[in-house]
Amino acid sequence: MSRNAKINGLLLLLVAALAVLPLALGLGDHKEEPFTGADAEAETAITEIRPDYEPWFSPLYEPPSGEIESALFALQAALGAGVLAYYFGLRRGRRQGEQRAAAARAGSGAPASEADANADADVHATATSAATVTADATATPDKGA
Q1: Residue 47: partners with Cβ closer than 8 Å, 6 or more residues away
Q2: How far apart are CA 83 and CA 109, in angstroms?
Q3: 46 vs 33: CA distance, rounded Å
Q4: Which H helix or E strand runs over 132?
Q5: How is 42-78 classified by DSSP, letter by letter?
Q6: pLDDT given at position 27
Q7: Stated pTM of the model
Q8: Residue pair 28/34 in contact by the 8 Å Cβ criterion
Q9: CA nearest 33: which of 20, 21, 17, 44?
Q10: Block mean pLDDT (10 aa), the chain, length 145
Q11: What is the predicted pLDDT for the residue at 116?
């Protein structure tokens, strides 16, 4: 089993535990609606502290029922997860494409990057000038001999 598979299994187990433990431990049994959101909890706490409190503004849209509110929240979460998955998939695809292109260039003898191309050009220029100097030295007869 690879290291990534172990990590993924552990994360999956952790997510399952986060979903099951509140139900198994009976968290929220003393409440009328045990798993209400933080907004409802805050509203309850505020009205207990200051019964005459009036909100500064009202929501733009008030869903007709709690089920529709939950469905809209789930839709929002799904859209956000889709955007994140697209972004990470795009980044991974680009990285894999760059790696494949680099491997293809390395296999064909072409430089893998612009810096490698510049380094190859410098080496070629140095080798060419050294060959020219050597050719000039062998082509010119020595006058001292």
Answers
A1: 53
A2: 39
A3: 17
A4: helix 114-139
A5: HHHHHHHH-TT---S---S---SSHHHHHHHHHHHHH
A6: 74
A7: 0.46
A8: yes
A9: 44
A10: 93 94 78 70 88 86 87 95 96 94 82 54 52 50 50
A11: 54
